[in-house]
Design brief:
Blueprint (H helix, E strand, L loop, with lengths): L1 E11 H5 L7 E6 L5 E6 L2 E6 L4 E7 L2 H7 L2 E6 L5 E6 L3 E9 L9 E11 L2 E11 L1 E10 L4 E6 L3 E6 L3 E6 L10 E2 L5 E2 L17 E7 L4 E6 L4 E6 L9 E5 L6 E7 L4 E6 L4 E6 L6 E7 L9 H4 L3 E6 L5 E6 L4 E5 L4 E4 L19 E6 L5 E6 L11 E10 L14 E3 L3 E4 L7 H14 L5 H5 L4 H12 L5 E4 L14 E4 L5 E5 L5 E4 L4 E3 L4 H4 L2 E10 L2 E8 L4 E8 L10 E4 L4 E7 L2 E6 L3 E11 L5 E12 L10 E7 L12 E6 L2 E6 L15 E4 L4 E3 L9 H4 L2 E4 L5 E6 L15 E6 L4 E6 L4 E10 L13 E10 L1 H10 L3 H10 L6 H17 L10 H8 L5 H10 L6 H8 L2 H11 L2 H14 L2 H17 L3 H14 L22 E2 L5 E2 L16 H12 L3 H21 L3 H11 ...
Parallel strand pairs: 16-20
Antiparallel strand pairs: 1-31, 2-3, 3-4, 4-5, 6-7, 7-8, 8-11, 9-10, 12-13, 13-14, 14-15, 17-18, 18-19, 19-20, 21-22, 22-23, 23-24, 25-26, 26-27, 27-28, 29-30, 30-31, 31-32, 32-33, 33-34, 35-36, 36-37, 37-38, 39-40, 40-41, 41-42, 43-44, 44-45, 45-46, 47-48, 48-49, 49-50, 51-52, 52-53, 53-54, ...
Length: about 1400
């Protein structure tokens, strides 16, 4: 509605006027047009021009007059701003004339003028940016009033004065008294309503009036008596006569302090001594003054306003009557909407001075006033013991307001559009930006982990998901659009109306004169080329867009005629392209519904048009208006400006006809529906009796009926009701089973509370958009006695669907609730909606002081069971709920053990993992351990490594069985931070706290907690570790036996499995390979490794995984390592390029790893895996075979194409082809596994991996190890290698010819016919071949980031020259690990 922006401005009357004896300012008032502000101290009156802000004139009260008449207390303006009426403390009314000063020939008697120039059509045009009028204040007369003055009000013809003696006097502006209009209060009858004949009269002592205000709409006076009672006095006859006055009591009002009347909404606000305010309206039938609503704090943590702030001191309505500014006696300022929604409050802010020596200070506001269009709030501050401010200071707070508050049309209520005095604030829903989508997902994961992430990833319509998520968690930044200064020049300031089309791409503004419109796509404004045309009309009824046409309800100054104008957007702003229609009265409201235009005029008539678009001969669009009918609203609207909004709607229609069926009228906050009477056949629409829908309505949202899956939400009527939240008039469609019973209504009104003030409703997304003020404690750049907060505007969103479902279920409308929910199941946050509903009902019922007779929780649980994400919703709700409420929750949802078993059976392992935490707190530890083992087996079988990592940590932390469960509450904010585990270097390292479903328990360290728990029941830490290690070893054995080597690497990386030690121990038993060709093919498929050569039957495309199919070809090309350019001389440059290629942003879709794994690989690739000696491509000059014993290898060479020498050139080309087509991450993984297999003497596996990598140097090492160290290998290892190579040669000759030559080379090496000392130009490089074994292994294991903490001990070998250190190869940074760069050891990311 209204939102504060920036810091309040401060200026001094004394410094500006040059008078150092000004004294404290006591009152401030604005003229009727609010362009001139009058501020007053006890002896000085000064007039301020608003724009530019400048002091116009001052009037100092003479010393003699001060002694005779007293000092100034309050002032009022005459309606035409030609005079001021000031009351004094000695009972005088001082009248000051406002005279225009200066030569008679000077225009408007200007004090000075600010001018600028702009070029229009190559002509320089001079423009006024601001005019300060030249006015002076002259004393006219001083009128004494008997019995003392309590309050005054001013009208155009008279000054009305209330006295301490109980009289109301009427004075003319020349000081003469209207004696015949004098009213004595004790002679006026007071009653509860007009129909009550028992009227009473006040005594002389009770008839003193302390405050009085006149209402032109209610035609009466609101008064407050000395005892705090409030009443409203009216004339019973059209003529003004004291004898026709009667008064109506405001019920239950006994402590009123001040009055504010809203003429637009026709009610009276009484400020109370308890810090609240009560709003009363007149009953049209009985005439009673009924309580409408109260302005009070309804926050969850209510503020004791009576003690903190005191009584209400001052209240002022904004010029448009949409918000109320309120201040209290002790401190504080607040802004309220019409029906009690709090927009801004400073009571919770501490105002601290810049000067030293003073503690916290409070802001005591003495008087308030709004200026032009409500863009600034002027206020005066008291000088008190708690606030040390300059006594003559005047403060000015800037505001922006909603465009729909003054221009409620179909476009403005669909978007969040705010308007300031010279700019617009628009929130753009950026649904096309992928980066915006990622930011929304990250924000959702960090702030609200309960959103259904799976439903987002599985959504086939990615663009729709992006739009929905951005709507829910979009950026808080605003698009600020500055209106051209040339249009806002001179007296044309400020913006009065603004409009946006339904697409949100085009905007229009109207200042005092003319219009301008803006395109977001081109970011350009269109102004009138002819300034005379711009200054010839003034917008009075608002702006609206219809397709690409701009509708304007305006007043033609030249012809003195009200008009409806239509300007095409695509053409220049010129009257030559305009379509105009004369109106019968001054336009007040303008709205569009489909092809219908509604114009409401000051004669209380609504004119309907049908508009169509045609093309002229000049090929420019023209709008053609067809006048349909005029509808008189005099019987419904008490006065013309009481109609807040008007629109056509189809909500009462029972068919899909295009004609509108009903008319919606918001009359002073009361919403009525005029349905069309189709029983009467007439040429014009006839409306039947009105239907009252709701009261206290501030805004209305409705949409034209369209065919959509969200028919319940789009066909509903949405009402914004201030402090009452929102109401939705929801349709109840009959079920598909049969017709709806006659006793069931077709619509139902459902109210629900909101945490935000609604600005727009997104019907199909089930989201409400709004805005709110955020105060920041920042120091202003200027010299200010008090540190005001800096105010900014935040966009807010709220999901409302769970409120609707809850209301339907409470009313036993389960079928309709299910239909509403079923229509919204495609929303990515649908599970979150159900979770919110469950959580709110659970907290409300479980924390109730008394048991509820009709509990809603069982019905909510039964309703959620109808959806597939039931267990996910319940578990997440439980984890975010206090532990004390779990008994109540699981009494309704059932045993969590049964939930765990159901999740495990259905394959929902993530939800089953979350159930373990619940079981840990509700059941003995042996039960949770048993369920954890079942989950671990299932997770390992399905290769859920991150989940398995959590379960393993859970088992090791939970320890042995225990009879008593740990009764600790789970925090709803997310997983707790796990204990610190020492690394090898002795430095503590903490786990990240943002892991999904991270299973941790509190304690100093995991091992301490484990030891403590095990000691109680007799179990040891070693027994627990042995059980977990046995499960992991068995699974590692199964993985290796089934040739799943990549899954083995992932298993080791995520679960911190000691793969190095295990391979050394088990290599004799399980590392043998029976079928080399089949194993090679399986490795190809696991690593998505391309085949060499161009054989279509064996190309990698035939075995592409689903993950690779999603990788764009451009991404593969962009991220391919150009290994031919790697060299030893340029290692640093190569490292920079390679690490850039494998960065998280390079190809996020082509890898299943989180971004942290790629960051972790940078150090590994730089130091080891991507070093040039590992990845250098072989040279074409290198010879594959240096010396061949033809007697031993004749049979092998018979099948070769060239029997004399086998060149490596062909193999070099195939190697390049394979490496250039592979993913860099897969190359790192293969290289790591090859080094690991070599270090653990798993030679058969190492041979296959070396063949995949065309690594001739590694082949040499493998053959050497097989020949030189038979004692540590199986007896037939060398023979198995020979037979395996022979099978590979046969397979390569038939299936993949690209491997044949390299396999022949491997066979020759195995037969001992190739000199291993001669370089063969393998990818491992010459440097690697020249290193001894100890240095080679040490180079691999020199990474300081160790993955496993192992004791520093050696493994003895038969050959003393070949010793492998366990801590060397184990410390190599695992490329399959997903640890972040700041982690060490076994700490892996759990995404």
């Amino acid at each position: 509605m209204y939102y504060a922006v920036g810091w309040p401005k401060k200026f001094s009357a004394g410094k500006t006027s040059g008078n150092n004896n000004v004294g404290p300012m006591v009152a401030i008032r604005a003229s009727r047009e609010r362009r001139v502000i009058a501020a007053m101290s006890n002896t000085l009156v000064c007039l301020w021009n608003h724009r530019p802000r400048a002091l116009i004139t001052t009037y100092t009260w003479p010393e003699r007059a001060l002694k005779q008449m007293g000092h100034f207390v309050d002032l009022r303006w005459k309606s035409d701003a030609s005079a001021l009426a000031i009351r004094t403390n000695k009972g005088f009314i001082v009248i000051l004339n406002v005279c225009k000063n200066g030569p008679s020939n000077q225009k408007d008697h200007e004090l000075y003028r600010i001018k600028s120039k702009r070029i229009i059509r190559s002509e320089i045009v001079s423009e006024d940016l601001g005019i300060v009028p030249s006015w002076v204040l002259n004393f006219k007369c001083g009128v004494p009033v008997r019995n003392g003055i309590t309050d005054i009000i001013c009208r155009q013809e008279e000054i009305i004065v209330s006295t301490k003696g109980g009289y109301i006097y009427h004075y003319k502006w020349d000081g003469l008294l209207h004696a015949q209009l004098t009213v004595q209060i004790n002679s006026v009858p007071f009653s509860a309503d007009k129909l009550n004949a028992k009227a009473s009269f006040l005594s002389l002592d009770d008839s003193r009036i302390i405050a009085i205000e006149y209402s032109r709409s209610l035609r009466g006076y609101a008064i407050i008596l000395e005892d705090g009672r409030g009443a409203f006095m009216q004339y019973s006859t059209p003529t003004v006569s004291p004898n026709s006055l009667f008064a109506i009591w405001a019920k239950n009002t006994s402590s009123a302090t001040c009055i504010a009347i809203n003429n637009k909404y026709r009610f009276i606000i009484f400020g109370l001594s308890n810090g609240q305010a009560a709003a009363y309206n007149l009953d049209d039938t009985t005439g009673a003054l009924n309580l409408s609503h109260k302005l009070k704090f309804v926050h969850k943590d209510p503020l004791d306003v009576a003690n903190v702030a005191g009584a209400v001191r001052c209240m002022r309505w904004s010029p448009d009557g949409c918000v109320l500014a309120m201040s209290w006696e002790k401190c504080g300022l607040s802004i309220w909407t019409v029906f009690g929604s709090l927009i801004l409050c400073t009571l919770r802010m501490d105002y601290k001075p810049i000067i030293d020596g003073i503690g916290n200070q409070t802001l005591q506001i003495r008087d308030l006033e709004w200026d032009v269009e409500g863009y600034h709030l002027w206020f005066l501050v008291d000088k008190s013991e708690t606030f040390d401010s300059s006594p003559d200071c005047i403060y000015q707070m800037q505001f922006v307001k909603s465009a729909s508050s003054v221009n409620p049309n179909a476009g403005n209520i669909c978007h969040v559009l705010l308007q300031a005095e010279d700019r617009l604030y628009l929130h753009i829903l950026d649904s096309n930006s992928a980066s915006g989508f990622l930011r929304s997902v990250n924000a959702m994961n960090s702030h609200n982990s309960s959103l259904d992430e799976k439903s987002i990833n599985k959504n086939s319509q990615l663009n729709q998901s992006q739009a929905d998520l951005n709507i829910l968690l979009g950026s808080k930044q605003w698009c600020v659009i500055q209106v051209p200064s040339s249009y806002m020049a001179g007296e044309n300031w400020p913006i009065r109306y603004s409009a946006i089309d339904k697409t949100g791409r085009f905007l229009a503004v109207a200042a005092v004169m003319g219009i301008a419109h803006y395109s977001l796509s081109t970011q350009k404004w269109k102004l009138f080329g002819n300034i005379a045309q711009e200054q010839n009309f003034s917008v009075t009824g608002g702006l609206a867009w219809w397709k690409d046409m701009l509708l304007v309800a305006c007043y033609n100054v030249q012809q003195a005629q009200e008009e409806l104008r239509i300007y095409p957007r695509s053409l220049n702003l010129d009257n030559a392209f305009m379509t105009s229609e004369k109106l019968s009265g001054s336009a007040i409201l303008l709205n569009v519904y489909r092809d219908f235009i509604m114009v409401y005029c000051s004669n209380c008539k609504l004119r309907l048009y049908r508009v169509e678009k045609k093309e002229k001969k000049q090929n420019h669009p023209v709008a053609v208006l067809h006048r349909l009918q005029d509808i008189s609203l005099e019987n419904y609207v008490p006065q013309a400006n009481a109609l807040i909004s008007v629109t056509l709607t189809c909500i009462n229609a029972e068919s899909d006809e295009k004609e509108p069926e009903s008319l919606l009228l918001n009359i002073a906050g009361r919403l009525i529906l005029l349905p069309r009477d189709r029983s009467k056949k007439a040429t014009q629409a006839v409306f039947s009796c009105p239907i009252a829908l709701s009261s206290t309505v501030e805004m209305v949202w409705s949409t034209p009926r369209t065919r959509t899956t969200h028919k319940y939400l789009t066909d509903a009527l949405w009402l914004g009701c201030g402090a009452d939240g929102m109401k939705v008039w929801l349709p109840l469609y009959p079920s598909s089973e049969g017709k709806q019973p006659n006793f069931v209504a077709k619509r139902i009104m459902l109210p629900f509370k909101l945490d935000v003030y609604p600005q727009a409703v997104l019907f199909e997304e089930a989201v409400i958009l709004g805005a709110s003020n955020e105060a920041m404690d920042l120091k202003s750049s200027g010299n200010c006695d008090v540190t005001f907060p800096f105010y900014s505007i935040d966009r807010t969103t709220q999901i409302y669907l769970h409120h609707i479902l809850r209301q339907l279920l409470r009313r036993n409308l389960d079928v309709h609730a299910y239909e509403v929910a079923r229509c919204c199941m495609s929303l990515p946050y649908f599970s979150h909606i159900l979770e919110l509903m469950l959580h709110e009902v659970l907290e409300e019922e479980a924390t109730a002081s008394e048991p509820m007779p009709d509990a809603l929780l069982p019905r909510i649980v039964a309703f959620i069971q109808e959806f597939p994400s039931y267990y996910h919703i319940v578990v997440h709700c439980a984890r975010k709920t206090e532990f004390d409420l779990w008994d109540y929750l699981f009494a309704a949802v059932g045993n969590p053990k049964n939930m765990f078993e159901e999740c495990l059976a259905s394959g929902d392992l993530e939800t089953a993992t979350s159930c373990l935490i619940i079981l840990q707190n509700l059941e003995p530890s042996d039960v949770s351990r048993l369920h954890a083992t079942l989950l671990l087996d299932t997770a390992l079988a399905k290769h859920k490594w991150e989940l398995s990592q959590d379960v393993v940590r859970f088992l090791r932390a939970a320890g042995p069985c225990s009879d008593t469960p740990p009764r600790t509450s789970i925090s709803s904010s997310g997983p707790l931070t796990p204990p610190v585990t020492p690394t090898r270097s002795g430095e503590p390292t903490s786990w990240p706290s943002s892991k999904k479903n991270s299973l941790v328990i509190t304690g100093s360290t995991i091992r301490d907690r484990l030891s403590q728990s095990t000691a109680e029941k007799g179990y040891t830490v070693e027994e627990t570790e042995f059980y977990v290690d046995s499960v992991l070893k068995n699974h590692a054995t199964n993985l290796l036996k089934s040739w799943q080597i990549r899954e083995l690497g992932l298993f080791s990386a995520y679960l911190d499995f000691p793969l190095f030690d295990w391979l050394i121990k088990e290599r004799i038993h399980i590392t043998a390979i029976e079928d080399f060709p089949s194993c090679l093919l399986k490795i190809h498929k696991q690593f998505d490794w391309p085949f060499p050569g161009n054989n279509s039957e064996t190309s990698s495309e035939s075995i592409k995984t689903e993950e690779t199919k999603k990788i764009p070809q451009s991404d593969l090309t962009e991220n391919t390592l150009n290994l031919r350019q790697l060299s030893l001389e340029d290692a640093s440059v190569n490292h920079q390029r390679i690490t850039h290629d494998i960065s998280p942003d390079s190809n996020a879709e082509s890898s299943q790893y989180p971004a942290s794994i790629l960051a972790r690989l940078e150090n590994y690739s730089a130091n080891h895996l991507l070093a040039p000696e590992y990845l250098r491509a072989p040279s074409s000059n290198d010879s594959l075979v240096t010396s061949v014993d033809t007697s031993c290898a004749a049979s092998i060479l018979e099948d070769a194409d060239d029997t004399n020498i086998i060149s490596f050139a062909d193999v070099d080309d195939m190697y390049e082809e394979v490496i250039m087509n592979c993913h860099p991450q897969r190359a790192l993984e293969l290289r790591y596994m090859l080094d690991l297999m070599l270090a653990t003497d798993c030679l058969e596996w190492a041979l296959l991996l070396a063949i995949l990598l065309f690594d001739g140097q590694s082949i040499c090492k493998i053959i050497q190890r097989a020949h030189l160290q038979p004692s540590i290998l199986t007896a037939n290892t060398l023979e198995r290698i020979k037979y395996g190579l022979r099978d590979l040669e046969t397979w390569a000759n038939q299936e993949c010819y690209g491997y044949k030559k390299f396999v022949i080379y491997c066979q020759l090496m195995a037969l001992g016919n190739i000199n291993p000392d001669v370089s063969v130009g393998s990818p491992s490089g010459d440097m690697q071949s020249n290193l001894p074994r100890e240095e080679s292994i040490e180079q691999i294991s020199s990474d300081p980031l160790s993955s496993v903490d192992k004791p520093n001990e050696n493994i003895s070998r038969s050959d003393s020259q070949h010793i492998v250190h366990k801590d060397e190869i184990s410390s190599a940074n695992h490329p399959l690990e997903t640890s972040s760069p700041t982690e060490k050891g076994s700490e892996c990311i759990v995404s």
